[in-house]
């Protein structure tokens, strides 16, 4: 399989660094519509709940699987119209980066590459379920990673002073 080189993430500089997308795939997908599209006979003004998570797994010394999980729930009143979950995954060859750069690549850059694929999968499932189209809004994964790191630092116990 040929390697497809993708954009250069922040911090990439010397020739020893490499970031290549090896494979992209849907790892898991589910769609539930407890009431079916019958719910649309009422006024279609749902409230949406959106959750996203990322996870990275080292497959080999220079191969990382990154999984972007998107869960979207649409409710009309107290009734769930539909619930969609997509786990969009990719295998990335990543070499020559320091640990902080690697954390940013796996936590922000790779999910940004996966997001358009996940958006399409979510949209397709909703349409196939008989519901009006829904497009996920753009996401700033750098800002989400920074927020997550700041929360983790705030929740970390203070070092003991002797």
Helices and strands in order, then pairings?
Elements: E1 4-5, E2 18-32, E3 47-60, E4 63-76, E5 79-95, H1 99-128, H2 141-155
Antiparallel strand pairs: 1-2, 2-5, 3-4, 4-5
> What CATH architecture do you see?
Roll
Structural domain count: 1
**Tally the helices: what do you get?**
2
In percent terms, what proportion of residues is strand?
35-45%
> What's the number of extended β-strand segments?
5
Largest sheet descriptor: 5 strands, antiparallel
User: Runs with pLDDT <50, length 5+?
Assistant: none
Give the fraction of residues assigned to helices. 25-40%
Provide the residue-averaged pLDDT.
87
Shape by Cα distribution: globular
Cα gyration radius (Å): 19 Å
Reported by name, the CATH topology is Bacterial Protein-export protein SecB
The multimeric state of the shown protein is: single chain
- According to CATH, what is the class? Alpha Beta
- Give me the strand/helix succession: EEEEEHH
Distance between the termini: 57 Å
Structural class: alpha+beta
Q: Please, what is the CATH homologous superfamily?
A: SecB-like
């Amino acid at each position: 399989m040929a390697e497809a080189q993708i954009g250069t993430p922040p911090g990439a500089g010397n020739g020893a660094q490499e970031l290549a997308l090896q494979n992209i795939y849907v790892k898991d997908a589910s769609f539930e519509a407890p009431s079916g599209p019958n719910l649309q006979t009422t006024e279609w003004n749902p409230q949406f709940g959106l959750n996203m998570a990322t996870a990275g797994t080292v497959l080999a010394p220079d191969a990382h699987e990154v999984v972007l999980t998107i869960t979207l729930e649409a409710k009309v009143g107290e009734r769930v119209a539909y619930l969609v979950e997509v786990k969009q995954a990719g295998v990335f060859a990543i070499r020559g980066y320091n640990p902080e750069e690697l954390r940013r690549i796996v936590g922000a850059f790779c999910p940004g590459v996966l997001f358009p694929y996940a958006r399409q999968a979510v949209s397709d499932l909703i349409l196939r379920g008989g519901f009006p189209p829904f497009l996920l809004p753009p996401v700033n994964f750098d800002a989400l990673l920074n927020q997550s790191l700041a929360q983790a630092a705030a929740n970390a116990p203070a070092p003991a002073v002797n």
